[in-house]
Amino acid sequence: MATAATWDPIQEMDRRVGSMLGSPRPQAGMPMDLFRTGDHYVLNVDLPGVDPGTIDVSVEDRTLTIRAERSARTGAEAQWLLRERPSGTYARQLTVGRGLALDKISATYRDGVLALSIPVAEEAKPRRIEVAHEGESPRIEQATAG
């Protein structure tokens, strides 16, 4: 028995852009998870150690851009023995498909994770269409006085 496949517009566009640019794997500096729950997509982006004031989320046309900055620890008295945590500005762009309410995205940052909630647009939600039957007269029900 075949099952219907669900189409995820954000994941599909991110996959296409990544394959065109030769980087189908997530960027190491900004790994993310995406899932759908009810009528929202939830995008969780790992941004440990960034200054919350540097986080910028913007949407232009169908492109969602996330930027953040992790400052380098400086100090003349520091003698580095190991330095693996990258610093600087991180950016990630996703081209999203139609059917999302991009003007209603909400974002929160907690414990090093940026969480975006992206609602499905009203016009993209499934709805039931009533089918009228030809040749049938509309039923009229009358209330009886009791």
Describe this protein's structure.
Helices cover 8% and strands 32% of the residues. It has one helix at 9-20, and strands at residues 32-37, 40-46, 56-60, 63-70, 88-95, 106-110, 113-119. Strands 1-2-7-6 form a 4-stranded antiparallel sheet, with no helix packed on it. It has a 3-stranded antiparallel sheet with strand order 3-4-5. Mean pLDDT is 80; it is low at 22-27.
Order of helices and strands: HEEEEEEE
Q: Give the helix tally.
A: 1
Integer-rounded radius of gyration: 24 Å
Largest sheet: 4 strands, antiparallel
Features:
four-stranded antiparallel β-sheet, 7 strands, about 10% helix, three-stranded antiparallel β-sheet, mainly beta, elongated, about 150 residues, 1 helix, about 30% strand
